[in-house]
Write a structure and sequence with these properties.
The protein is an alpha+beta fold. The chain is 19% helix and 24% strand. It contains 6 helices and 14 strands. The radius of gyration is 20 Å and the shape is globular. The termini are close together.
Length: 274
């Protein structure tokens, strides 16, 4: 299956810069966007063959996420279930028969690290949300189950559903993931605190799909609009596809599509057998 994730930095603006051409050309099974910056009813996006799910921020022109999927999910949920976090439209979760799929737009710590403490709380609550999603819920058998069936009240443990997460995590995980690491240690997106939280997330049972296949490659997914950063390739890799460790061997390809314009981010792609 082919999955695409793209921080579009305003979907209405991105549509005017070729979004639909890329969307139709890529023909993804699931296509996710972050930072949609729109409210319900502000854009009629015609995507034949896709189910659309949007999570809008309360604040106009801010944040927001969307998922477009060919297969209709079993269930859809929005946010983390925590009011403090769910005002900004940052998370959508789809449940399919064999896996969960999540798109996320992680809060930026902002200039001067003004929002770093909130970011740390978000990271903890997001990880707790993922761990809860992974919990196995046993089935309880009862009644006349005959000899060949489990005995009364015996628990059957179904296989846990793996999770695929994509989006803008607003962190460069290692020095390999940004052009000028030494100059950015105290800046939002590369502080020790943010990198440690991301490492904790990975250590909890997730694989960075791009780094799994490209352990030494320097390639970026975001560039500042200032100082001709994209032209000079002075960028950061802050957009990721993460998968549960249990399915990392099913990853076929993971790419950063640097040639695609329309935003200060470029799309990223995951191909996986699932």
């Amino acid at each position: 299956m082919k999955f695409i994730s793209w921080n579009v930095n305003g979907i209405r603006a991105c549509v005017k810069k070729g979004f639909l051409d890329f969307f139709n050309e890529t023909d993804a099974d699931i296509f996710c966007i972050q930072e949609s910056k729109m409210q319900e009813g502000q854009l009629d996006l015609n995507l034949p063959g896709y189910h659309q799910y949007w999570n809008y921020a309360v604040k106009k022109g801010y944040s927001g996420t969307g998922i477009f999927t060919k297969e209709e999910p079993l269930s859809v949920s929005y946010g983390l279930g925590i009011e403090e976090h769910d005002q900004e439209g940052r998370v959508i979760t789809l449940e399919f028969e064999n896996y969960y799929f999540i798109t996320v737009y992680t809060p930026n710590s902002q200039s001067g690290l003004a929002r770093l403490s909130y970011r740390m709380k978000w990271e903890e609550d997001f990880l707790a949300y993922l761990k809860k999603l992974e919990e196995t819920k046993p089935v309880i058998f009862c009644g006349d189950l005959k000899e060949s069936q489990p005995s009364l009240t015996q628990e059957a443990k179904p296989k846990k559903k793996p999770i695929i997460i994509c989006g803008d995590f607003n962190v460069a995980a290692t020095e390999l993931d940004l052009k000028n690491p030494k100059n950015n240690v105290k800046n939002a997106g590369f502080t020790p605190e943010e990198r440690e939280k991301f490492k904790t997330l990975l250590d909890s049972g997730f694989t960075d799909s791009y780094r799994y296949l490209h352990p030494d490659t320097e390639k970026y997914s975001w560039w500042s609009y200032r100082f001709k950063a994209r032209e000079r390739n002075a960028g950061w890799r802050i957009d990721y596809f993460l998968t549960s460790d249990s399915i990392k061997d099913k990853i076929k390809d993971a790419e950063i599509l640097t040639d695609v314009m329309g935003s200060d981010h470029c799309p990223i792609e995951l191909d996986i057998d699932i």
